[in-house]
Amino acid sequence: MTGLADRLTPEQIEEFGREMDEIRQRVVADLGEADVEYIQNIIKTQRGLEIAGRGLLFAGFFPPAWLAGVAALSLSKILDNMEIGHNVMHGQYDWTRIPELSSQRFEWDTVAPAENWRHSHNYIHHTYTNILDKDRDIGYGILRIDPAQKWHPYYLGNPVYATLLAFIFQWGVMLHDLEFDRIVRGERTWSDNKEVGAKMVKKAARQVGKDYVLFPLLTGPLAPLTFLGNASANLVRNLWAFSIIFCGHFPADVESFTEEETENETRGHWYLRQILGSANITGGKLFHILTGNLSHQIEHHLFPDIPARRYPQIAAEVRAACEKYGLPYNTGPLHKQLWSVAKKIVKFALPGSGSQQEPTEPTTVSPELRAA
User: Which residues are in the Fatty acid desaturase domain (predicted)?
Assistant: First the structure.
């Protein structure tokens, strides 16, 4: 990384790390009944929206009722995936010892099996955030999203792949664990996917059966409208989740790193990498709830295991620390971040955009920082 982190001495990096540790320790020490009440209220709201949505689809012959049902069901699926599922499965509420809030027991309303996701996301992504060839969320194995990824004619389809991924995002998240790119490179075989694949088939069959067979059949002659309503709610959830996640990871100025640059990484360096490899999205309280507070992706990458409702409370403090040390704090409204991501996807679809054959290198941590 040129310019910004070069201004930090090894001592400053470790001091920055200590300040981040202090923020985390203070939040953890303050966790209590208010956090439990918050997530339980969100769960009640989500369940109420699902009941209302499915109930309204029984009156789907009346267009306003059908639209209201789709809206309620869409919100239910968004809350289930973003503010509840994602955060509970991160272990943010394991300290409560409440079974329904256990990261190991929770299963969400999406085709991706929770067990597979916990490994690929909680462990792989959050341990190796934005480390090329380690963090498989960089491009999700199908997109060129970083200048260090060698260009290939395949990437001319970048905008098409990204659009398709947005529409079927829950399926993309599920299939992500098959690691097709590694199979193509000969680093993994189909037999290696036997156990992972079996879990996918089982979970996908359950989800498809619920949304596209059981509930449509329950509405009798309105089955086609119910089928369409469920498909519409899944589509809304997919587009929303794609937008929020990509805006938190891939806007302009979000940086990437190599394995060599992160060898012998200290706690301070790890925190620094999270800051530089993330971006926030500005918005109001309801917006943040619907994003699962992943609109505070910087804070989430810094503290993935503390309740996400706490991120807005500490965001100003994290930003002040970044300003103190001359570090960027990448944030902006949804439309700005989304447009930035779109331009990046198009840019890296083309040759001559920082491929490995060219002198352009990815923005990375400087050797001086690595040596700390």
Answer: 65-331
Supply the pLDDT for residue 7. Answer: 65
* Residue stretches of the chain with pLDDT short of 70: 1-7, 353-372
Tokens of 215: 């509930």
pLDDT of residue 372: 33
The average confidence (pLDDT) of the chain is 90
Residues 6+ apart with CB under 8 A from 345: 143, 145, 158, 159, 162, 250
Point out which residues pair with 15 in neighbouring strands.
none
Q: pLDDT digits over 26-66, tens only? A: 999 999 999 999 999 999 999 999 999 999 999 999 999 99
Instruction: Report the alpha-carbon distance of residue 62 to residue 15 in Å, rounded.
Output: 62
- How far is residue 152's CA from residue 308's CA, in Å, rounded to a whole number? 39
Residue 270 CB: number of other CB atoms within 10 A? 16
Q: What is the pLDDT of residue 6?
A: 56
Q: State how far the Cα of 19 lies from the Cα of 41, in Å rounded to an integer.
A: 32
pLDDT at 262: 86
In angstroms, the Cα distances linking 22 to 34, 210, 299, 303 are: 21, 45, 14, 11
How confident is the model at residue 264, as a pLDDT? 84
pLDDT at 114: 94
How far apart are the C-alpha atoms of 137 and 119, rounded to whole Å? 12
Tell me the chain's radius of gyration from C-alpha atoms: 21
Half-sphere exposure for 203 (CA within 13 Å, toward CB): 22
Rounded CA-CA distance 355/345 in Å is 14
Domain boundaries, the chain: 1-372
CA distance 184 to 207: 29
Name, in order, each residue with C-beta under 8 angstroms of 272's C-beta and a sequence gap of 6 or more: 5, 8, 13, 16, 17, 327, 365, 369
3-state DSSP assignment of residue 281: strand
DSSP string, 166-226: HHTHHHHHHHHTT-HHHHHTTSS-GGGGHHHHHHHHHHHHHHHHIIIIIHHHHTGGGHHHH
From the list 283, 250, 263, the residue with the least C-alpha distance to 158 is 250
- Rounded-to-integer distance, Cα 42 and Cα 29, Å: 23
